[in-house]
TrEMBL record:
PANTHER family: AMINO ACID IMPORT ATP-BINDING PROTEIN, L-CYSTINE IMPORT ATP-BINDING PROTEIN TCYN. This is ATP-binding protein. It comes from the Bacteria. It is a peripheral membrane protein. It comes from Rhizobium chutanense.
Amino acid sequence: MIELSNIEKRFGDAVILKDISIRIPEGSVTALVGPSGGGKSTLLRCINLLEIPTSGSIRLGEERLSFAPGKRTSWQAIQKIRRQTGMVFQNFQLFPHQTAIENVMEGLVTVLRWPKEKARERAMELLTKVGMTHKADAWPSTLSGGQQQRVAIARALAPSPRVLLCDEPTSALDPELSAEVVDVLGRLASEGTTMVMATHDLRLASKIANDVVFLEAGSVVETGSARAIFTAPERERTKRFISTINAAHTYDI
């Protein structure tokens, strides 16, 4: 279970997130959707403390942290939360000087101190899961965007995190390459992987999310099951936003 309570985030005088409280059940997929600048990515990055909330509290598993203006959060406390998460970035963030399999192995070897052979076995298992074993020894520069993102997903899954966080996982990809990544994320969802994703891609959200949080101007406008949000939203603002789904370009929803 992930629980965010009364989360506020400020950058100077600008309030980016306003009193956000949501619960994310284990084994579920939650999509954070909304217009640009609404706070989706900032909220996602607050979960693993890449951004430190100004106030509020976060519970991830057995760990709970509270935040207040001027209150310092220790590195040890940050790490206890962060080590339970895996992060998939919009622009892949693969190490260019390492092959695909070395990218997946990196955290296991350098952070968790796994023996290289054990890390290689785990990396190959995950590359198989994302359909990339044939590119295990390829350099990132030789891979398509969709292939790079699949390697990035494998890397994020390597330490068996409690939750996979995806920040716009398809926005840098064309529709064909997006479909590759959507397929992988869909399989992970069907296996019960807990995921939270910030996405502009409503087709992705409608395909694999269990729950949806619609954010605008740093506030939660509406939350609900994906089916409810995408077929019968209650708020007029949500209805207008959801109507932008182009039915001609779906992922077989």
